[in-house]
Write a structure and sequence with these properties.
Helix 4 packs across helix 7 and helix 6 packs antiparallel against helix 7. A five-stranded mixed sheet has the order 2-3-1-6-7, sandwiched between helices. The longest helix has 38 residues. The chain folds into two domains: 167 residues, Histidine kinase N-terminal domain (Globin-like); 149 residues, Reverse transcriptase/Diguanylate cyclase domain (Alpha-Beta Plaits), CATH 3.30.70.270. It starts with 13 loop residues before the first helix and ends with a strand. It contains twelve helices and seven strands. It is α+β, with helices and mostly antiparallel strands and 340 residues long. It is elongated, with a radius of gyration of 35 Å. InterPro entries: DGC-Regulatory_Protein (IPR052163), GGDEF_dom (IPR000160), Nucleotide_cyclase (IPR029787), Rev_trsase/Diguanyl_cyclase (IPR043128). This is GGDEF domain-containing protein.
Length: 340
Amino acid sequence: MVLANMPGRRPLTMKLAQFIQAGKEQLLEDWEEAALEIAPQLTGADGLALRDNAHEILEFIVQDLATPQTREESACKALGKGKGTASDIGGEHGRNCFSRGLSVLQMVQELGALRARVTRAWSDEQHHLMVKETNELVRFNEAIDQLIANSVFSFSSLKEHEALLAETIPKAPFDPTANFDSLTNLPNRRLFLDRLEQTLLEAQRKASSFALLFINLDHFKQINDQLGRKAGDRLLLQVAKRLRSDFRAMDTVARLGGDEFALILKETGSSCAKEAAKALLISLEQAFHVDSHRVNLSGSIGLTVFPEGGTNIDQLMCNANLAVFAVKERGGHQVQVYES
């Protein structure tokens, strides 16, 4: 205890250190509750890591309170320039917060919660703080200040490194055509499958239904052979335009390839989907004009409805295809609803 009376050094502050040591489990429990309110993502394994990290921080504070220091050392700590364990503990805390997706504000608030809980508990214990107890709180706050400074420095360094890496990694050029058919500008198979998945998830969440329609153009190959590929492309453009105009903005009209199109009709049951499919057949029957040619067209439509016609994407796609094949075997120009 000779060090306590050395000139220029603050006296040892064992009382608060003993208080923290004795009430550590309760302090950790209170702090963990506060930290989860500040950063709800700290659950499961992350929550356990938080508690381990908090335990190390309290151990550091207890040791720090029990160690004499000069006024110069005290001032350095408040600026985050202390030596030894504080830098290690604070740096580790910053790295842990970064890896668990906390923001720097959440990290500072979390350490602030520790400050508030220890201060309140200590004040309740002492009732009326004497000068010595006040000095102990000053030492405690200096330790917290240093932890915050070291944590922020560590966190910021990782953020800067992450930003530097992002700049050095070459970014793939944005391709606006990646999700759209190059001829018709309708969603292609890739975007169609993504929208089908999103529609399925939405229907499951809302306990609603939706319809999937596959449309094949009847005898398109013969028309393409007779008029030529360029005329065939212009015919497909007109078909795409007509399909788009016949359905709602919330629905998806896609070209899967060749003369195959697909529709996703949101919030639509079996009877309404069948009516929509019949109306589409009538729309396709209206003559198209390609160059100087009048082209008469028809379609084969197979449809299935979630959930009775399939509960996942593979089932829905398979069953809509089966319905289309059934129509084609009967000569086309019909609508077939898949029935299990």
